[in-house]
């Protein structure tokens, strides 16, 4: 058959890429995926990764990313999601039904808390708050289905006794889901502590470039993975090939960047601790931080974020001026990117201890540590 040019352009083979190997996998973008025959179409398995059936259900690029993230966290299965919060919500939507009970820590990630209170509770799911530093505060019933854990929380950085908490939850027949955006698969391996599910905000350290929003769910349990995958598909979730490509590139330098962020943040935290204008520095590597003994026992490193509580004599306006005076620390959300960030949250933070003054969270980037210290010092001088 002789084809007209416009038809031939659409039906020319792309070429075989099976024997092409490079540092990074190829970037595939697709909605329609072709089948070689109707038999293959009828035998398709939309829950497995044995083939490709529809772009939103996976491409070689997204499958490669999922395999790497699963390996990073010591899991067997992974789903990449449009955002970290979406990954959190997917766990809840998949596992919880009206009448079930969810346990969440009092200092849980703010967007997580909002989803729990504004959506889950409205759907008839019971929510119980617990103190992650006090195992006796966890109240279990025969309807307790899931315990949510952060190690540590991302605002005041209390670090829980994760193995004991997981053991207690399992003893009562509850599953444990861990928000592992802080650990990023580098500080510790979540499945060494027998958690059932790990949720990871790839937006942060895995990407490292502050230009991609993505989340991941990992697990070692095939039945949990299958349930999550089915819900994922019913909700029509997917991530784009270019975004997956970007995170794959970030993973290549993740370990180096994580330790660089860690080292710089510890230096800055120790420096701020010596200021008479600071009441408290919250960083799990500091000996007086809540749960330091568990962090030092269980972790190999720490993320490059910490919070500072200023002396109570400084007002909200004073601390706003301090943050506005910073030149290298930009005002913005998230962490794990190359540029340092700082935001004042005042006293409107869910915490286990009453705050002496205004709280500022620092996310340390990849600038020279000495430059960041100088920037903080010139802003402190304005207080």
Describe this structure in words.
Belongs to the trans-sulfuration enzymes family. It holds the Pfam family Cys_Met_Meta_PP. One of its GO terms (molecular function) is cysteine-S-conjugate beta-lyase activity. This protein has a 7-stranded mixed β-sheet with strand order 1-7-6-5-4-2-3, sandwiched between helices. It has 2 domains: 38-251, Aspartate Aminotransferase, domain 2; 254-380, Aspartate Aminotransferase, domain 1 (Alpha-Beta Complex). 34% of the residues lie in helices and 15% in strands. The chain has helices at residues 5-11, 38-42, 60-73, 84-95, 110-120, 162-171, 222-234, 241-251, 254-273, 292-298, 316-325, 369-380, and strands at 77-81, 101-105, 126-130, 144-150, 175-179, 197-200, 215-219, 278-282, 305-310, 341-346, 359-363. The mean pLDDT is 93. It has 383 residues and is α/β, with parallel strands linked by helices.
Kindly report the average pLDDT value. 93
Estimate the helix proportion, in percent: 25-40%
Spell the H/E element sequence.
HHHEHEHEEHEEEHHHEHEHEEH
How widely separated are the two ends? 80 Å
Largest β-sheet summary: 7 strands, mixed
Low-confidence stretches: none
Choose one word for the global shape: globular
DSSP summary: helix tally: 12
In CATH, the homologous superfamily of the largest domain goes by the name: Type I PLP-dependent aspartate aminotransferase-like (Major domain)
Question: Structural class of the helices, strands and pairings?
Answer: alpha/beta
Please name the CATH architecture of the largest domain: 3-Layer(aba) Sandwich
* Secondary structure: number of strands: 11
What is the topology, as strand order, of the major beta sheet?
1-7-6-5-4-2-3
**CATH topology annotation of the largest domain:** Aspartate Aminotransferase, domain 2
CATH classification class of the largest domain:
Alpha Beta
Overall number of domains: 2
Percentage beta strand: 15-25%
Rg to the nearest angstrom? 23 Å
